What does this fold into?
Amino acid sequence: MGNIKQTKFKLSAFTKHFAILGLVSSPFIYASDISNYQNRSVSPPKIISSPEIDGIITSSEWENALVIDDFVEFRPEVGQAPDHPIKAFVAYDDEYFYVAAHITQPHNTITDRLLTQGSNAWNEDYFGLVLDTNYDKSDAYLFHVTPSGVKIDGLVDGSNYIEEWKTIWYAKTKKTDKGWDIEIAIPMQSISFDETKPSWGLQLRYKSSKPYQQYYWNLNNTQDSPWNANQVGEIKYISGIKQGKGIEVRTGLSVNKVSDDSNFEPSMDIGYKFTPNLTGLLTLNTDFSGTEIDAQDVNMTRFSSYFNEQRDFFLQDAQLFQFGQFAPFSTNGMPFYSRRIGLSPQSEVLDINWGTKLTGQVSETQLGVLSVNQDSAHNNEESSSTQLSVARAKQLINKNHSFGGIYTQGSSTGNDDSTIGVDYSYNDIIFDDQSIRFNTWYNDVDNEMATGDDTASYGLQLELPNDTFYWRTRYQHIGEDYNPSLGFVSRKGIEYSEHVTHYRVRPSEGVLSEHLNFFMFVAGRFATHDLQGELLSERITFQPLSFQTKNSDSFRIAYNRKTEKLVQDWAFSDSISYKAGEHQFDSWQFVASTGTQRPFYTTFTVNYGEHFSADLVDYYANLYYQPNRHVYLNVGRGSYYYEQSNNKYAVHRSHIRLNVAINADWSWNTLLQHNTRSERFSLFSRLRYQSAPDELYQISIAKGYDVSEGWSDRVETNDETSLKINYIHRW
It folds into this structure.
């Protein structure tokens, strides 16, 4: 380990030099200029004759629509006019909300390499919208489309993007002599809204990859992320819209072969809109077969791992069940974690018999109620099933304040466990253009397995989520006996705190502006103490250099200083172990990536330093190849090398992902994974046919093997083949 004082002195001098460069580069947009990027309220017309959504924009179809052409550049420079004109059209009728756009763009600059619906399309060019149907600037819907018609949808929960949410909507694109055109139709049945509020919020967004540029219709704050719900402009006088009878039925049939057992499973989800903003859902014989497997976890810590939800039933309106301020910053201590449903404490899959859900908004109150009946992890003579329930409510006091509560009941083992909590959030603008967010929460558990009375968890978080200067402070207390049966806890009996800041410069003039989109530095401290105030873990990080070029290539270097206190010896592997006591160690990290607009691009990460009392070198390389719209190949390889007193230990992990799009309807996706930490190899492959948003056919194969004794002596741990057919019917 080097001299820490000397290292800090060198880094601070380096930072001072870059701060001076930032001032010279004039990165700031002053508050007085924000009016240049805000738009007055506009009124899209209600049209009688609906346009045909075929990607061909004709003057007769869109002649009565609202025309929007006053887009402004947001990245890399704020305030510039588009290099090429963008002309959008907005309208609605009884059953659909419509958006279309002429994108003027030379063909050799269009990044368009996807055909498969559901693919990660953020590296492509795209045009889309954010729609806040309650105009409360707290959450919204997001719809984007690439030049080949690959759709991206999701939810914007304030400032967080929830990509797992999906719905039915229509979009078609067509290449033109001058660029490409797009037409979008969003069914009123696919969104929720308050009929008493005639004003909605709208943001229109266009992104070009070569060169990297983002353009928006409206900006309320040049420091905040422009797709956030608080950035929308007002569209008013929305009226006379219909959602039909509000009935949606999702039918499904699946034939599953698990090892040597085969079964035929019908399933059904029935949804009903009690009001345009309040939806009930009943699921029967819920079938999650064919859901893509998780990325293999190579856990090099002493604590359990968190996995994102991937099942459609739980993803629908998932933002309404979010409590406090956890993901994406922290997950430890969550009172509700939907992946607890359908799994035993030993992670065995449990069948879900039926479930109900009520989600939406009544006046200024957001509601989420979920109850599921599933097989019990401990079958007994009294009952072979158990009921798990959660209720979440949040009262929007005004555009800045909200107060909420959560309650969960039940456990996978049938115990009568419960959790209750309250939370408060505040969002506002200070100093004219600086966003501020504050969250605080408290919850307590009543758990039959608890052995003490320290069952509470609480915390607070203050965040200044601004582009130039960012700050986040977080404090969290997790009691020794805090163990919510439907929550997620990886470490309890602790007090956790973090302080993170960054300073980012986007040069707008001078030499740097010709070559860089931005440069920045980051600093942070993350600390965990026991409940007596003794330090258990600490990480001090400093990132003196990070930049992105005009070609979207990026590089960063970071220094980490860690302190870990082991309360007992830890056998990290067969050859390496760490003694109880306090360990201090440091490391350097280097990350380089090339611009994703190229057919071939890569990300490479290296960590060099120490791991407790061992020396550590690890790297991870991701290579991507997208030569056209039909092929996507990603190969990843990572290795960890540990050495302690001539004892060596290595861990390797690899994956290959190949997506082949035959055309816009047919796709074949395959994922292979292996790691030597768990000695597991897995295969997931799915052939998918989707000719329309409301029908889906797919065949999937999932296999897993224990290869600890070698491939020739492999032991099968999972073998599932699934054929699924799904239809959606609406009235």
